[in-house]
């Protein structure tokens, strides 16, 4: 029988166009869905919801529903989510530094 922790480890981390942007945004403070969508400018509601669900399933993002009226849902980074920021920042720096070379190599093949 699998534990919750084992299931989270089996969930692949979907790294798409919006994943780094969402993670970097949530490192500052928790956001509600609509606020996050306005902050990211250009992400569709469907893609934001899909990416947040994937990150939540991976254990990187927590979804917190408040008991206020009207019901409010906030998303924030979990402890695991906070630990991925530094490696992700390094990957983004690498991508910016070698973007031209990688693109050139793709077209030479």
Helix and strand arrangement:
Elements: H1 4-10, H2 19-26, E1 31-32, H3 33-40, H4 45-57, E2 61-65, E3 73-77, H5 79-83, H6 85-108
Antiparallel strand pairs: 1-3, 2-3
What is the annotated CATH architecture?
A: Orthogonal Bundle
The major beta sheet can be summarized as: 3 strands, antiparallel
Total domain units: 1
CATH superfamily: Winged helix-like DNA-binding domain superfamily/Winged helix DNA-binding domain
Query: How much strand content do the residues show?
Result: 5-15%
Question: Tally of extended strands?
Answer: 3
Gyration radius, rounded: 16 Å
Run of helices and strands: HHEHHEEHH
Percentage of residues in helical conformation = 55-70%
SSE class: mainly alpha
Number of contiguous helices? 6
CATH class: Mainly Alpha
Q: Which topology does CATH recognise?
A: Arc Repressor Mutant, subunit A
Structural description of this entry:
The model has no long low-confidence stretch (mean pLDDT about 85). The chain contains six helices and three strands. The termini are far apart. It is about 60% helix and about 10% strand. It has helices spanning about 5-10, 20-25, 35-40, 45-55, 80-85, 85-109, and strands spanning about 30, 60-65, 75. It has a three-stranded antiparallel beta sheet.
Task: List descriptors.
mainly alpha; three-stranded antiparallel beta sheet; single chain; 109 residues; 6 helices
Q: Briefly, what is this?
A:
The chain has 109 residues and is mostly helical.
